[in-house]
């Protein structure tokens, strides 16, 4: 068998939502004998889970926006610097294609690749095309997507769209063939709560209270695992203790596959990777989209799962967003009262939805199956196939015979 070993650059930044699919693709491409480098920003470089084989090149995260012209100037300067740094990397690494996963560093990297005449692909994790990807859509060779319907995608770009799904980590995907954990009318009800890679303050307030409102027949069987922000964790611990609900709390669970394997029900934000993992494994969910997500993309992400019967969505009113801790005096007190009322309503809604979904083992099991049916288990390999179908830059290719291990650097091996 003849295998062509190439170099690829993946560009992603900011949050786990952009980086986790990039890590999954990098792992698959390396397994196929290619060499991969990551372009990211300082936030992205700190996201746990980066494979050891993947070198990270940190560029500045330039963001254009806001009213202050100085910020625009700073953003523009960072983008230009990022583009210069990406071009330098391309000169030495000689990629056959550059794949952007969104987030600020993806922008200068893909723009630089376009300028250098390299094939470019963007992957959109959400059900709404993001700002960076909207700008790049015109320039790139292919747009990989994760949902059947993508809002804000210009119809003129539909011809280069490839529906692949969102790549998830290997250990999570491996759970797809495992059965839903045993759940009986008097057994434990294990609930997993996360707020995305950054955590979510509102969940620290509304989830413990919502769970405490459940009828005793369900409440006494609860076992909770919840990710909380560092500043909230003590208060959440006290909340669960006062309700008599056993809970394991952490600011970040590194062993998400194990947590998902055990969970009967998920409650949390509807970021793209979270949805991809829930549908890969088949876990029913109560989803609370981040209300300030750009173009309401977290609400759009819930649609397929909700329509299929795998999830229920709860809206968080926009008014809960400002943090009263940032205000003083009467205004603060008024905001705290208003927020307490809104949080109470959300907690009631969580309770109502759990009563509906977990009333008997069958409804929970059916919802798990419906969630499973929404998964894209081949997302990583389909995306890798798409990447390999681009970027035949013959001078950079190394022809590897019989599947032998690739040379440390492809271009050196050609010499
Ligand atoms: C706040 C914000 O802007 N979020 C966006 C961000 O995703 P964000 O990173 O917030 O959320 P995602 O759901 O996409 O990803 C979270 C990832 O973190 C993992 N995890 C989470 C908690 C934990 O304790 N351990 C752990 O491993 C999850 O398993 C998942 O793989 O980019 C996504 C992709 O563009 C968007 O859909 C989200 O709207």
Automatic annotation (TrEMBL):
Catalytic activity, as annotated: di-trans,octa-cis-undecaprenyl diphospho-N-acetyl-alpha-D-muramoyl-L-alanyl-D-glutamyl-meso-2,6-diaminopimeloyl-D-alanyl-D-alanine + UDP-N-acetyl-alpha-D-glucosamine = di-trans,octa-cis-undecaprenyl diphospho-[N-acetyl-alpha-D-glucosaminyl-(1->4)]-N-acetyl-alpha-D-muramoyl-L-alanyl-D-glutamyl-meso-2,6-diaminopimeloyl-D-alanyl-D-alanine + UDP + H(+)
Signal peptide residue numbers: none
Main localization category: membrane
Subcellular location as annotated: Cell membrane
Membrane association type: Peripheral membrane protein
One Gene Ontology cellular component annotation held by this UniProt entry: plasma membrane
The protein's Enzyme Commission number: 2.4.1.227
Binding annotation for UDP-N-acetyl-alpha-D-glucosamine: 15-17, 126, 169, 197, 298
Domain Glycosyltransferase family 28 N-terminal: 9-144
Residues in Glycosyl transferase family 28 C-terminal domain copies: 191-319
Enzyme class, spelled out: transferase
Annotated GO biological process: carbohydrate metabolic process; cell division; cell wall organization; peptidoglycan biosynthetic process; regulation of cell shape
Pathway this chain belongs to: Cell wall biogenesis; peptidoglycan biosynthesis
Keywords on record: Cell cycle, Cell division, Cell membrane, Cell shape, Cell wall biogenesis/degradation, Glycosyltransferase, Membrane, Peptidoglycan synthesis, Transferase
Alphabetized InterPro entries for the sequence: GlcNAc_MurG, Glyco_trans_28_C, GlycoTrans_28_N
An example Gene Ontology molecular-function term: undecaprenyldiphospho-muramoylpentapeptide beta-N-acetylglucosaminyltransferase activity
Function comment: Cell wall formation. Catalyzes the transfer of a GlcNAc subunit on undecaprenyl-pyrophosphoryl-MurNAc-pentapeptide (lipid intermediate I) to form undecaprenyl-pyrophosphoryl-MurNAc-(pentapeptide)GlcNAc (lipid intermediate II).
Record family assignment: Belongs to the glycosyltransferase 28 family. MurG subfamily.
HAMAP family linked: MurG
Name the record gives this protein: UDP-N-acetylglucosamine--N-acetylmuramyl-(pentapeptide) pyrophosphoryl-undecaprenol N-acetylglucosamine transferase
